[in-house]
Each structure stands twice: as C-alpha cells, then as structure tokens.
Amino acid sequence: MTLFIISSDWRFKERFKQHFSPACLRSYSAAERALNEIEDQMPDLLVIDSRLKSGAHTLLLHQLERMGVCSTILYCIDDEADRRFVPETSLCLYVVLRSHMHAQKISEFLDPSVAEDSSYENCGLLGDSEAMVEVRSQLSKWGKEECSIHLYGETGTGKELAAQYLHRLKFPYRTIVSVNCSLLSDALGKSLFFGHTKGAFTDGTSELNGLIKEADGSTLFLDEVENLSLHFQAHLLRLLETGQYRRFGDTTVHTSAFRLVTASNVRLDQLVEESVMRKDFLYRICDVVITLPPLREHPQDIPILVAAHLASLGVHTCVDERSLGLLAEYPWPGNVRELFSVVRRAAVNRTGGQSISITERELLTPLSYANIS
C-alpha cells in the first residue's frame, strides 16, 4: 500500500506519521514534486489538503485528471460551505472535512484485503513472519479492552511502538503519557508523577497536577517497570486498585481513570522471586502479557525492516543480496534498534553504486569499529 499526503501544513501531515510506516507513507508540501512522484509510482490513496498555497489544490486536481490518475483521492476541506468550491472532475474523489481526517478514516477507503495485509503498517511493527503476525494479532485483540497490558521483550524489539499502537486503538484522539520508571526513584520523580501543591517542598512556588492527572482518560505507559522501587510500587497499588491518589502536600483525594500499559526487558515473575517486585503489584499490572520476539527469531523480516528504514532516511536504494544474507546470520543482541544503526552507518558510508554493501566490520559496535586500525 502506498499513501501520498499533499499539504503545506506540517501539523496536518504529522497526524498520520505515527499511524503508517515510512515504507508506505509519503508526504509533500508542493504539488509539483508530488506530481513527479505520481508519474513514477501510482499511489493507492491520495490525500490532498485544500490549504495548499495559492490555490494549487485546484490546479493539482486538474493535472491529475489529465494524467488519467485512477487512485482514490480524499480532498480535505475546512467546512461544509467549501464544498461549492470543489471543482468537477472525473477523478475518484471524495470530499472529507479536515476535522474528520484521521488514520481510521483513511482505512475506510482502502481495499479490505490490502488493509488486512498491511495492518502492520499501522503499528510500525514490520514483518511477515509468523512471530510478528502473532504479535500484531495480540495487540489488535487486546488494544480496546479494559485491562492492563504488559509488554515483555529484549531491548530494541519495539515495545514502545507496541505501546503507542495499543494507545491509538483505544484513545485515537488523546496523547499517551509515557514515563521511564528509572526517573521515579527520587522525590522529584514522585512529585512529577503524582503532582504537588504550592509550598509542598522547598522551591515549590507553584502547584503541579502531575502525570497521573494528565493520563486521566488516556493511556499511562510505564516503561522499564522493572526499575520501580518496592516503596514506589506500594504508592502505586492504591492508585491501580481505586484510581485514587493524593498529590504531595495535599489532603484532597483525586481520581484518575487510565488504561495502564507497562514494559520490561526482564521477566516480572523473576523479579518477584528475587524480592524486587511485589506479588500484588505484579497481579495489578499483568492482566495480559504480550511478548515481542527478538530479531534472531524472525530473521526473514530483515529485508522488510531494512527497506522501511532506508525509506525513512530518504535513501532511494537497497542493500545487496550478499549483505542481506550476512544480516540474516548475525545474532542481533540489540535487535531492531541495532539493525537500524548498522543500516544508517552503511548508508552514510556508501560510495555510490546501485546498492548498499554491508561488511562484517560494519556489524561491530561503533566503539569497536572506531578502534580498528
């Protein structure tokens, strides 16, 4: 699936970047550049913003008609009164209010078979392997449910992408509140999390609502939850059980209703055995556990991942077959994050030609790579 978005408003284009992978989404600020790309590749869907500068949207529609473009086109207007200014064309054109334009609206105009086959593009977890298909299936199954979800996986496997996708499924118009639990170990972190009243501590010259209040009606994502102290887990238990909490220096009980998503790269039952996680806290955060597989367990997805990352870098070439074979044999202790680092380094170091070549030397960490004479 290929989606083109043409708009001079960067905020409008940003709406869709988190929902579709760089491999399928292309955005343009100028109609001329988009036309050149359309001549080379006909997109499945075109989104055209009526706010293009100097009335360029009207000229663009007429040019698309002359080119015989058969793609579905979503033409975005500010209000219903603007419908009278939409030019008559023979294009497959649908007029949509700008306020109604979101990723779900786009999905309504995609062929069902295409949308199903490319569902991974909506969550950013790329791959056609059985392992990744199962992960996306689990995320879709539990995404809208009223339950706490724990994401387990090694570093670099895409836990944050999974959390973002779970959030968009349930709260597409709200902002996810993400917290790295390593930052909650001191008094300042607790104050940031729960909030505080004016004068609650030295230099507390104003009140702070806290991240818990911000998460009300949305998703609270606790990343690296294995780093929470036993003391802080005790603070969280009442909040998770009742939705009630107190800000520092405040006697008033506040409430916050949120969906909890947590992530770790350590098995939580192991933490319970080591007495660094409370068993009652474990039960509160693990209604459902979704495991993200390490890259070494689905190396067949590496070509898809590499192509998508090169597209996101704006590199219009590919990695040669010999290099792809080398990448497939490497164990990837840093998983997809490490793969993307290697691909970026190889793309920068390339010296022309039609494809990118990756050697065993480039699979080393940057520090080791720099020390090779």
What gyration radius follows from the Cα positions, in whole Å?
24 Å
- What is the terminal-to-terminal distance? 45 Å
Label the structural class: alpha/beta
Report the β-strand fraction as a percent range.
Answer: 5-15%
Q: Output the number of helix runs.
A: 17
How would you name the CATH homologous superfamily of the largest domain?
A: P-loop containing nucleotide triphosphate hydrolases
Reported CATH architecture of the largest domain: 3-Layer(aba) Sandwich
Please provide the count of β strands: 14
Task: Determine the CATH topology of the largest domain.
Answer: Rossmann fold
In spatial order, strands of the major sheet run 2-1-3-4-5
Mean pLDDT: 85
Number of domains: 3
Largest sheet: 5 strands, parallel
Oligomer: single chain
The shape is globular
Helix content: 40-55%
